Amino acid sequence: MREYHIAGRLAPVIFKDTVDSTNTALKELARAGAMSGTVLIARRQTGGRGRLGRSFESPPEGLYLSMLRKTVCPPERTLTTTPMAAVAVCRTAEAVCGLSPEIKWPNDVLLGAKKLCGILTELSVQSGEATLVLGIGVNVNTPEESFSPALRDTACSIYGQTGCKTDMAAFARRLIAELDELFSLWEADSRAFLAEYRRRCSTPGQDILILQNEKSRPARAVGINEDMSLQIIGENGAEALRFGEISIRPAPVKDF
Ligand code: BTN
């Protein structure tokens, strides 16, 4: 384990070679008293965790990073921290790699319609203080052949899409700086980055399938609401989707 300090930043950045999951390991550090802002980065994850209890493939040369935040913000506001992390990843990929990723609601970051990054926020609340662990996995220099066959059609990496290797340390430093800035804005006003999220989210305007309780239903995504829920029009009319999973339905092929 190595510990780094970024000039002007109080909390440390801890680097470990291998952990089961950076989120799990950081939650242990939080219980042992780690300060708000502490970041944990691992070169390898043996048990990376994804949303909805799924596992998260973590092949070598990806960035696996978790950030701890202790905050007195009301728990319902913490729903917007995952979209906030997606904005931070987009800003970083733009600044460090010159790319323009898009967000698929609520928080997948896509490059060319394939998933570049997954985000998992975990929250516990005790005596009015929320402890947030924000986990981000970005396929930075990952060779796309190292994804399992099940993922190859849907996942991508910066290296696979550009043919260029990225300076991982520069990418991680920039991502931490963007997260620090967005967290401070968010603590003052949880909608501070709403306009930017709306601009970066490519889901409105698309036909989608809403996946809920092992069933799927078609709808059209029409906008992002102020609470960052997805406004849809489905079989039962207009509805705001607060959480859940969607897939994008491909546009029908037109014959001329
Ligand atoms: C998802 O897309 O389902 C979310 C994936 C989140 C993966 C990241 S990798 C770093 C952190 N540690 C984990 O175990 N999960 C998150």
Q: How would you characterize this protein structure?
A:
- Helix content is 23%, strand content 34%.
- By secondary structure, the chain is an alpha+beta fold.
- Strands 1-2-3-4-8-7-6-5 form an 8-stranded mixed β-sheet, with helices on both faces. The protein has a 5-stranded antiparallel β-sheet with strand order 12-11-10-9-13, with no helix packed on it.
- Helix 1 (22-31) links the parallel strand 2 (13-19) and strand 3.
- The chain binds biotin.
- Biotin binds at residues 21-23, 45, 48-51, 54, 56, 64, 66, 118-120, 135-137.
Small-molecule binders:
biotin
Strand order of the largest sheet: 1-2-3-4-8-7-6-5
How widely separated are the two ends?
61 Å
Task: Give me the secondary-structure category.
Answer: alpha+beta
Q: How would you spell out the order of helices and strands?
A: EEHEEHEEEEHHHEEEEE
**Helix content class:** 10-25%
Shape: globular
Strand content: 25-35%
Secondary structure tally: strands: 13
Q: Radius of gyration, Cα only, in angstroms?
A: 18 Å
- Residue windows where pLDDT falls under 50 for at least 5 positions: none
- SS element count, helices: 5
Mean pLDDT: 94
Major sheet: 8 strands, mixed
In short:
The chain is an alpha+beta fold. 23% of the residues lie in helices and 34% in strands. It is built from five helices and 13 strands.
Which descriptors would you attach to this protein?
single chain, about 260 residues, alpha+beta, five-stranded antiparallel beta sheet, 13 strands, about 35% strand, globular, binds biotin
